[in-house]
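Example record for the data management plan.
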Amino acid sequence: MVAPPTSNIVFRQAEPLKPYNGTGSVKQYKEYFLRLSLCNGWDTKAEQARHLLVGMEGAAAEAVRGISGENDADLDKIWECLKRRFGFVDEPERAMRRFDSRKQMPHETVAMFEQGTKVIAPGGVASVKYVHTGRGFPVAAQVCGRHC
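Corresponding structural encoding:
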C-alpha cells in the first residue's frame, strides 16, 4: 500500500495594525502603514484602504467616515482626509526647519528680519529662542548683546 502524498500548508500570520486616533503624526503613521502593508502583503490600494479604515479610532474614524475602501482611489482619499484634519501635528517641525534655514540678508534691518521670522514661526517662540542665543543672526546678535 502506498501512502498518500502530503502537501505542505504554510500559515502566514499578519502583523497587527496599530490603531490611529489622530494624536500622532499623520506622516509617521503613513510611513508605518506602508511598511506594514509591504510586510503583510497588502498589494492593492483597495486592500490597503480597507485595512487602513479598520485601524482608525475616535476622531480619525470620524474624519474618514463615508469612505468605503472599495476602490483604489479611496486610499488616497483617506490619506488626504487625515492630512487635512490632523496635518497640524507636523506643522511645528516644518516651521522650525524653515526658520532654521532663514538667514538675515545684509540689506535687512533687525525689524524686517524679525517680521520675516514671525511669518515663518508665528508666536515668536523660535525667534526668542534663537535671537537670545545669537545663533545665525549676526546683526540680531549684536543688538541683543547691547540691549538684552
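Summary line stored alongside the record: DSSP finds eight helices and no strands in the chain.
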